[in-house]
Amino acid sequence: MTSTACLALRLAAPLQSWGGQTEFNRRETENEPSYSGVLGLLAAAQGRRRHDPLVDLLELRLGVRTDQAGTLLRDYHTVSSPDGAPLPSTQTNAKGQQKRTSPPKHTAVTERYYLQDAVFVAVLEGPSDVLTALTAALRAPTFPLALGRRACPPAHPLILAPREADGDVWAGTLEDVVDAIPWQAARHEQDRHGGPTVRLPATLDDPSGTELRTDVPTTFDHKHRAYATRRVTRRFVEVATGHEAPRDTAHRHDPFALLGW
Predict the structure, then answer these.
(1) 3 state DSSP class of 229
(2) By the 8 A CB rule, do 141 and 44 touch?
(3) Residues with Cβ within 8 Å of residue 25, at least 6 apart in sequence
(4) What separation, in Å, do the N-terminal and C-terminal C-alpha atoms of the chain show?
(5) 136 to each of 112, 142, 165, 225, how far by Cα in Å?
(6) Hey, which of 65, 81, 103, 159 would disulfide with 121, CB 3.0 to 4.6 Å?
(7) Are 135 and 40 in contact (CB under 8 A)?
């Protein structure tokens, strides 16, 4: 019988975008990595083609902890033809050539949304042999890896290995590992907190969860793309900050001190 373990990833980059169900000229992002997005990253690392089966990956449980929420960035721009011709439509003629828009459309507006300066911890629970194969692929990926979109490569190594072991996988359950991993926020974010712990939101796969997410891919094939649902539960995790006690604020500048407030 194959033992169960966990693989932990640090998802950090200047920009991330974990798309939901939006398409065409407006592409939004969820506020945390999606199941489809994380599995797509793993599949790319292993060199899987879009039509390849995902059965073994779909057995993995996912937990996401938000260590640094980041901020929302809106990328607004227009598209037009350099020669002033009408833009092509999404339809093709009998020869497979794109038709022109009718009535003619000379400018298209597109919007793309990103999370900037965000850091997440993604933990996957599953069979040890599957996770071991994934860690090897993540260290030498077949295809370039991205955090949701190709324009968003990771800024740091992805794998968070346990310090007390030589391997890359963690012993314990998904819940245990989500609680055990040290705070991964950037130094400037950590310096803003003076207490001994920080409270971080987490979303975990849970068959008895009350919230449904429609982000489980049945295939990554463009022609047959479809998504199933999964149940999740949300909770908060108390993580140590490394500060032994609240910081002394006695010497901070107080602009209202002269007014006696």
Answers:
(1) strand
(2) yes
(3) 108, 109, 110, 111
(4) 68
(5) 33, 11, 16, 28
(6) 65
(7) no
Per-residue pLDDT tens digits for 79-95: 888 888 888 887 888 88
Q: How far apart are CA 204 and CA 60, in angstroms?
A: 12
Q: HSE of 168 in the Cβ direction (CA atoms, 13 Å)?
A: 22
Residue with tokens 């001190």, as numbered in its chain: 257
Name which of 153, 118, 119 is nearest 41 in CA terms: 153
Q: List CB contacts of 11: < 8 A, sequence separation 6 or more.
A: 33, 119, 120, 121, 122, 147, 154, 158
Q: Quote the tokens at residue 248.
A: 């002394």
Cross-strand bridge partners of residue 62: 124
Looking at CATH, the fold of the domain delimited by 4-76+109-244 is given as: Alpha-Beta Plaits (3.30.70)
Q: Tens digit of pLDDT for each residue in 118-144?
A: 999 999 999 999 999 999 999 999 999
Residue 122 per-residue DSSP state = E
Specify the amino acid at residue 125. Answer: E
Beta strands 107-127; 4-16: pairing state: antiparallel
CA atoms within 13 A on the CB side of 171: 5
CA distance 64 to 58: 16
Domain residue ranges of the chain, discontinuous segments joined by +: 4-76+109-244
Query: What six digits make up the tokens of 221?
Result: 């094939």
Half-sphere CA count of 42, side-chain side, radius 13 A:
28
Q: What is the pTM of this model?
A: 0.85
How many CB atoms within 10 Å of residue 193?
16
